[in-house]
């Protein structure tokens, strides 16, 4: 498959996908960057707030005064500011995800990504220069702005890549969004080691580097072609769309006429109906099946329990008896990256539906394995290996399907008209679910203890059944063909309802 993909990849297409994926890399880095230096940042917050000092560690051993805290992270003020530093990122993403469609259609996908990079650079400067003023205020402000940026880019990147990619390789190229995210997380984990940047002197630089990919992306975006679908369907510029399509496809034998004909039909359909806003998309019965599928795909990604592994893997490895849990956590990041690459290779051969089912089913089994391992490792020391193996396999199954596929399948499920609104809704669903898991998991873990992953196993089983019954395969299909699958299903449902009504009327008249 890879040689065939390389034959289809022109230099322009490779540049466009790489440039767009820099936004995803930045998103992944921003997700992971705050975790590794937590203790260092909490200590700095405590010192600048005047509620903690290194002397407190010594004093607490010889004092019974309540105001002395051996760790800065135990002080209520530090807890509040640290929690805000983490959670404000998701809140920013939730708010901005509604604007993805507006920004994407305002000046185009490329100029949209270029415009929002101002936010990323501003956020990086706020965090990188945080020691110049009140660090807790600067970091919280920077994280809020960065979250707002990531909410936009997490929608714009899959939208752009999905619209410029050749149909046969739309899945493989779409998966690169998730690959860039996990590489960003891995880079942040490595840089977060205390002997690199995760120390008292360098942590502001580590946070400030969150904005670095935006600078490179801003230099490269003017060299990238605009989405041909945007040019033709939204702006009606056929010749510019033809030129853009040629630039991203192989030279010589490629004829853009069939692709432009498909866009023409899609444009005609879009012109027949008013512009699809988020509210009208929610209310429309025409797109309801696609919307339910899109939202459930994103819910299955976030409520699978994967963020519980990412956020608390160090604590889980500690319970499992790992001597250096931080390196085991980096190992999870490496597994993450490797199996996302596996997904890139398989997604256009095995298909989206198949990989998602395999991934969710495998995660369900691993969640049960983690529960058994955590529960019995006190009685049987070798059970700690079961727990660790289950964690690594859990992450592997996630990246094969449930991790990357929801991000780009939404762009496949909807035609040009409702696509921006659908991506905005799906993005908001993803960010909101992420926030809910991040805020509630510690309480759920306290309540269920070793049985916490049984809850996720139940959810994973439910998502697997739903996807088996309701999600069609989109591999190799045009946007028009995918829409026809849902129309066919809707017509069958409407016909079934009509037949049932007629049967009931006939029965009533016979009884009479």
Supply database-style keywords.
mainly alpha, Growth Hormone, Chain: A, 2 domains, 24 helices
What does this structure look like?
By secondary structure, this protein is mainly alpha-helical. The protein folds into two domains: 10-54 and 69-224, Growth Hormone, Chain: A; 273-496, Up-down Bundle (Growth Hormone, Chain: A). 77% of the residues lie in helices and 0% in strands. The chain is built from 24 helices and no strands. It has helices at residues 2-8, 11-32, 38-49, 54-62, 76-96, 100-106, 109-128, 135-164, 170-191, 203-208, 212-220, 228-234, 238-248, 257-272, 278-283, 288-302, 306-319, 325-350, 352-376, 383-400, 405-413, 419-448, 452-470, 479-511. It is globular, with a radius of gyration of 25 Å. 48% of the residues are buried.
Number of strands: 0
Tell me, briefly, the overall form.
Answer: globular
Helical run tally:
24
Beta-strand content estimate? under 5%
Number of domains: 2
**H/E series:** HHHHHHHHHHHHHHHHHHHHHHHH
State the end-to-end distance.
66 Å
> What oligomeric state do the depicted chains represent?
single chain
Structural class, judged by helices and strands? mainly alpha
Proper CATH architecture of the largest domain = Up-down Bundle
Radius of gyration: 25 Å
The CATH topology of the largest domain is given as: Growth Hormone, Chain: A
Q: State the fourth-level CATH superfamily of the largest domain.
A: MFS general substrate transporter like domains
Sheet with the most strands, sense and barrel status: none
Protein name: Major facilitator superfamily (MFS) profile domain-containing protein
Keywords: Membrane, Transmembrane, Transmembrane helix, Transport
Pfam family, one: Sugar_tr
InterPro entries: GLUT, MFS_dom, MFS_sugar_transport-like, MFS_trans_sf, Sugar/inositol_transpt, Sugar_transporter_CS
């Amino acid at each position: 498959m890879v040689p065939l993909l390389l034959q289809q990849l022109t230099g322009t297409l490779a540049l466009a996908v790489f440039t767009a994926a820099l936004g995803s890399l930045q998103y992944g880095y921003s997700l992971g960057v705050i975790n590794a230096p937590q203790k260092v940042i909490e200590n700095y917050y405590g010192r600048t707030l005047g509620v903690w000092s290194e002397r407190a560690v010594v004093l607490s051993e010889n004092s019974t005064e309540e105001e002395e805290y051996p760790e800065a992270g135990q002080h209520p003020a530090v807890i509040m500011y640290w929690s805000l530093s983490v959670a404000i990122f998701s809140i920013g993403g939730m708010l901005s995800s509604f604007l993805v469609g507006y920004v994407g259609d305002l000046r185009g996908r490329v100029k949209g990504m270029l415009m929002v990079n101002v936010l990323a650079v501003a956020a990086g400067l706020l965090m990188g220069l945080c020691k110049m003023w009140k660090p807790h205020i600067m970091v919280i402000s920077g994280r809020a702005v960065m979250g707002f940026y990531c909410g936009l880019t997490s929608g714009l990147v899959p939208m752009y890549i999905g619209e410029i990619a050749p149909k046969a390789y739309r899945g493989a190229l779409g998966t690169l969004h998730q690959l860039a995210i996990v590489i960003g997380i891995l880079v942040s984990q490595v840089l977060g080691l205390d002997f690199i940047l995760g120390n008292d002197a360098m942590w502001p630089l580590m946070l400030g580097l969150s904005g670095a990919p935006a600078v490179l992306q801003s230099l490269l975006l003017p060299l990238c072609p605009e989405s041909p679908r945007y040019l033709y369907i939204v702006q009606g510029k056929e010749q510019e769309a033809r030129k853009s399509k040629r630039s991203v496809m192989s030279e010589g034998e490629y004829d853009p006429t069939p692709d432009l004909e498909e866009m023409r039909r899609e444009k005609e359909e879009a012109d027949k109906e008013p512009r699809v806003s988020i509210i009208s998309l929610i209310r429309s019965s025409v797109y309801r099946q696609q919307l339910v599928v899109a939202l459930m795909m994103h819910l299955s990604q976030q409520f699978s329990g994967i963020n519980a592994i990412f956020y608390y893997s160090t604590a889980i490895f500690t319970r499992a008896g790992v001597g250096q849990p931080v390196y085991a956590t980096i190992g999870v990041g490496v597994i993450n990256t490797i199996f996302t690459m596996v997904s890139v290779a398989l997604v256009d051969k095995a298909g989206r539906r198949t990989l998602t089912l395999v991934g969710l089913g495998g995660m369900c089994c691993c969640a049960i394995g983690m529960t058994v391992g955590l529960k019995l490792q006190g009685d049987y020391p070798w059970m700690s290996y079961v727990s660790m193996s289950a964690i690594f396999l859990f992450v592997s199954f996630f990246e094969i399907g449930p991790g990357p596929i929801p991000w780009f399948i939404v762009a496949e499920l909807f035609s040009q008209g409702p696509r921006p609104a659908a991506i905005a809704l799906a993005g908001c669903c993803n960010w909101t679910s992420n926030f809910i898991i991040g805020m509630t998991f510690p309480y759920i873990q306290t309540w269920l203890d070793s049985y916490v992953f049984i809850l996720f196993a139940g959810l994973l089983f439910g998502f697997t059944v739903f996807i088996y019954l309701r999600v069609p395969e989109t591999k190799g299909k045009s946007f028009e063909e995918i829409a026809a699958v849902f129309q066919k299903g809707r017509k069958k449902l409407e016909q079934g309802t009509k037949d049932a009504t007629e049967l009931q009327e006939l029965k009533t008249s016979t009884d009479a």
